[in-house]
């Protein structure tokens, strides 16, 4: 059994026991988290409607950071240059149960 969950602006496939990285959440390690379900697959059965009560339970494992991204802007012949960096912050969540 697996589920497709929505976390922030992204969707991910999860199975019980997986550790996934989602956009940063406020909370300490060990805090319980509930994620909404978009699609639920149990063998041959695929459920995509009526999932208002379905959820995926998980617990916060830790925090991590994504790779450093460099943004550079340049305009020819004007002397305009701009350099900016970004590093996305993530929260690692361990999936403990899929509630259908």
Automatic annotation (TrEMBL):
<dbReference type="GO" id="GO:0005737">
    <property type="term" value="C:cytoplasm"/>
</dbReference>
<dbReference type="InterPro" id="IPR001787">
    <property type="entry name" value="Ribosomal_bL21"/>
</dbReference>
<comment type="subunit">
    <text>Part of the 50S ribosomal subunit. Contacts protein L20.</text>
</comment>
<dbReference type="GO" id="GO:0006412">
    <property type="term" value="P:translation"/>
</dbReference>
<comment type="similarity">
    <text>Belongs to the bacterial ribosomal protein bL21 family.</text>
</comment>
<keyword id="KW-0694">RNA-binding</keyword>
<dbReference type="InterPro" id="IPR018258">
    <property type="entry name" value="Ribosomal_bL21_CS"/>
</dbReference>
<dbReference type="Pfam" id="PF00829">
    <property type="entry name" value="Ribosomal_L21p"/>
</dbReference>
<dbReference type="GO" id="GO:0005840">
    <property type="term" value="C:ribosome"/>
</dbReference>
<keyword id="KW-0689">Ribosomal protein</keyword>
<comment type="function">
    <text>This protein binds to 23S rRNA in the presence of protein L20.</text>
</comment>
<keyword id="KW-0687">Ribonucleoprotein</keyword>
<keyword id="KW-0699">rRNA-binding</keyword>
<dbReference type="GO" id="GO:0003735">
    <property type="term" value="F:structural constituent of ribosome"/>
</dbReference>
<protein>
    <recommendedName>
        <fullName>Large ribosomal subunit protein bL21</fullName>
    </recommendedName>
</protein>
<dbReference type="GO" id="GO:0019843">
    <property type="term" value="F:rRNA binding"/>
</dbReference>
<dbReference type="InterPro" id="IPR028909">
    <property type="entry name" value="bL21-like"/>
</dbReference>
<dbReference type="InterPro" id="IPR036164">
    <property type="entry name" value="bL21-like_sf"/>
</dbReference>
<dbReference type="GO" id="GO:1990904">
    <property type="term" value="C:ribonucleoprotein complex"/>
</dbReference>
């Amino acid at each position: 059994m697996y589920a497709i969950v929505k976390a922030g602006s992204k969707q991910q496939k999860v199975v019980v026991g997986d550790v996934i990285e989602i956009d940063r959440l406020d909370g300490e390690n060990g805090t319980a988290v509930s994620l909404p379900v978009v699609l639920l697959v149990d063998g041959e059965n695929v459920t995509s409607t009526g999932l208002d009560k379905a959820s995926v339970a998980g617990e916060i494992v830790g925090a991590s950071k994504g790779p450093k991204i460099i943004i550079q802007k340049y305009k020819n012949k004007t002397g305009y240059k701009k350099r900016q960096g970004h590093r996305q912050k993530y929260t690692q969540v361990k999936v403990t149960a899929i509630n259908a």
